Amino acid sequence: MDKMKIQNNSVTLVDQVEDKLLNYFKEKDMRKGDSIQNEKELAASLGVSRSVLREALSRLKMMGIIETRTRRGMILSEPSILGGMKRVVDPRILSEDSLFDILGFRIMLEIGICSEIFRQITPRDIESLEEIVNVGIVYENNEYAPFSEFAFHTKLYQITGNKTITEFQNIIHPVMTFVKDKFQDFLAPINIQLKKEGRIVTHQDLLRYLKENDEDGYRKALEQHFEVYRLFIRQKEERGRPKK
Amino acid sequence: MDKMKIQNNSVTLVDQVEDKLLNYFKEKDMRKGDSIQNEKELAASLGVSRSVLREALSRLKMMGIIETRTRRGMILSEPSILGGMKRVVDPRILSEDSLFDILGFRIMLEIGICSEIFRQITPRDIESLEEIVNVGIVYENNEYAPFSEFAFHTKLYQITGNKTITEFQNIIHPVMTFVKDKFQDFLAPINIQLKKEGRIVTHQDLLRYLKENDEDGYRKALEQHFEVYRLFIRQKEERGRPKK
DNA sequence: TGGTCATATTTGTCTGACAAATGTACTTCT
DNA sequence: AGAAGTACATTTGTCAGACAAATATGACCA
């Protein structure tokens, strides 16, 4: 990993300053809301020009680590863990491989939250899900209107009570929509095939398992619900890397 | 969300330029390796000064979206999805709540990859795991030497073949180590209690389930393996938010 | 006391300059 | 003629200084 750094490009002053700033905040044990020296002083004490300092600060601002207001100075702020990810996770920036990785990531995560869901779920949650399912618009072949799809799965993530997981879902949802849209022609036949075999699992089905408190049944159903993507990813892998 | 933006601070020129650049790359359908105009021209065509442009570029560099070399100009590069996360996921920056969220995230994800592991695992993988377990140093009460712990779980993530997931594990591992270290006094008694009840699941146990191709057994064992953290998180939640 | 206004400070932006690195073209030597 | 070395030009990296915009602060007045 270090070799990569050396290979890529020499560490620039801005990189160093960025690092120094982070270390500085950590060493001083500064908390959210604490104010930071003004740029002039900071630049002086770091021994760099204001422009270099500003580039470093700009990065930290983007990450949400600091906030600035004219004349009011800068304050430390708690960054969103996935804030950086948000900018990058754009279907138009990422390669197909990465998109499929994210797709797989999301599927595995949603399967992973099963047990937590069953631990945390309340009757209220069931009601919410029921409403989402009832209001939801279902197209043929296990396709849902984007909003219904989003609402249902987001609710599942929310039940875990884990904000980071919920945020993650929000960030990668556009990727799901994009993949669904772009590869519609590949997904449709798989869905039709699954339907023929009677292996389609709907949101309604999932909700039933939740109501019946059947965790194992739910997990298996959920895996089946995602089967279309799994098959699709496998197809893609086989085509992309024909041998080995 | 839009309200937040307005409330926080007016969108600065740098923010706009950053956005414009991303849009520009997307619209031109530029791919990894494509070269980008030099700073002077870019600044001119965007109608901003070089310093503003450089702040925006600096952000993109940090995200790994572009790379620069003196005199060779800038090229587009594929960003690491989690690259931005890497900088933020530092135990010294994040609040305890976030740390616990990440802890929970990781646990759920690792449970979620079970089925994929059983689909993908090869005899070679089993061998690797066996070696890791054999070489590994185990302290008392289900505590592993950091390296053994890291090697074992990293291998599990690798088996999925999903690079993003593996990278994720690498990034959040320091958080795990930090939490283990910082809250040792809370974790130890829980582990002792679990041991008394004979509910400790070791890496060796997990490996056995893998060898026997017993997915359900493995999943339940893995949940048990993480039980100490789950109990710990619940403890923390109850203390942190006494009512409601 | 309370309101208004001038001032000073701080971030945001622009301009111009030089340093370092390196691709390019030219020159020189064999 | 070809290869090697060298000077030049270009591009990123860094610095210094200036002004604009916003606003906290303090002075001044009713």
| Strand order in space, largest sheet of chain A | 1-3-2
Through-space gap between termini of chain A: 26 Å
Helix content of chain A: 55-70%
Parts with pLDDT < 50 across at least 5 consecutive residues of chain A: 1-8
The number of domains of chain A: 2
Largest interface: A-B, 62 and 62 residues
Mean pLDDT of chain A: 86
As a whole number of angstroms, the C-alpha radius of gyration of chain A is 23 Å
Helical region count of chain A?
14
What quaternary form is this?
homodimer
Strand percentage of chain A, roughly?
A: under 5%
CATH topology description of the largest domain in chain A: Four Helix Bundle (Hemerythrin (Met), subunit A)
Q: How would you describe this structure to a colleague?
A:
The first copy, chain A, has 244 residues and is mostly helical. Chain A has 2 domains: 13-76, Winged helix-like DNA-binding domain superfamily/Winged helix DNA-binding domain (Arc Repressor Mutant, subunit A); 83-240, Four Helix Bundle (Hemerythrin (Met), subunit A) (Up-down Bundle), CATH 1.20.120. Chain A contains 14 helices and 3 strands. In chain A, strands 1-3-2 form a 3-stranded antiparallel sheet. In chain A, strand 2 (66-69) and strand 3 (73-76) form a beta hairpin. Chain A is elongated. Chains A and B meet through helix 2, helix 4, strand 2, helix 5 and helix 6 of A and helix 2, helix 4, strand 2, helix 5 and helix 6 of B. Chain A binds a DNA duplex (30 and 30 nucleotides) through helix 4.
